[in-house]
Amino acid sequence: MSRRTPRLPSWLPVDPYIMALIGTVVLAALLPASGAAADVAGGASTGAVAFLFFLYGARLSTAEAVEGLKHWRLHLTVLACTFVAFPLLGLASRGLVPYVLTPQLQSGLLFLCLVPSTIQSSIAFTSIARGNVPAAICAGSFSSIAGIFVTPLLAAALLGNDGGGFSADALLKIGVQLLLPFVAGQLLRRWIGGFLTRHKKVLGLVDRGSILLVVYTAFSEGMVAGIWHQVTPARLGALLAVEAVLLAIMLAVSWYGAKRLGFGREDRIAIQFAGSKKSLASGLPMASVLFGAQASLAVLPLMLFHQMQLMVCAVIAKRRARDPLEDTSGSAASREAAPVG
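RE: above sequence
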């Protein structure tokens, strides 16, 4: 008799990129870069972060961003979830130190609450759930743009010395590695936009490879510094439990809050998926700039939360897809946030 190969349920997505990230962490644990190799890896990581934000700027269509402002109520709601509700919950988690979380893990959890929303997964889940996909595209894009400026400022204000503070050196690194490349990409978009569109798949691999390099460098520094001795299995289990509660709260706040604000079903779906998730692609490079040698512990909560949000939102999206559609012809909120173009 032939035996069927056991497979994971279709509703339980294991992102291959997450597996690559885990493999990178294992590599850094077994073969951390040290000495001259660490200097080379650090320089390459710095260049990779700058290149990533250059690509972010070059890919952003200014015209689409301006057109998307027509959905201003929806976008403000998503931004409020991302940069107000999340940070408030992150600050509340300080009450869990030291009984549930260590100070370092709590700082990483707070940093997770400060990074922008995702774009790709928000769009994918909104589409599966039959939500307002154009709104999800614009909401994710606006959140990413805002995060380039807002996340470092919030980190400096709320994390204090753990995130670099408002020192001149920290602000200079943010400007040189994040803001300057982003602005340069925007200025050069008219000349290189076509090239980026034609080579989208190749540049996507470059994006992911750059982030893997950032992860390897950060976790190598953590191994050399010996900070992993501070994390026990019990602390990791507690962190997962806290993140599960955090995600559940934000899923509820974004869904029922949008309903109270008068948004229709399609808009509420876009708000829930864009307002409850955090971007690994944006958060990892920012952490390397803001935390330096402590970046490995700072990004651990974000890496765990990223996979958790994919698994939970996949289940929610498929259930939402079976919901009966609403008649939104008379809804002012839905007319205001109707798809553009």
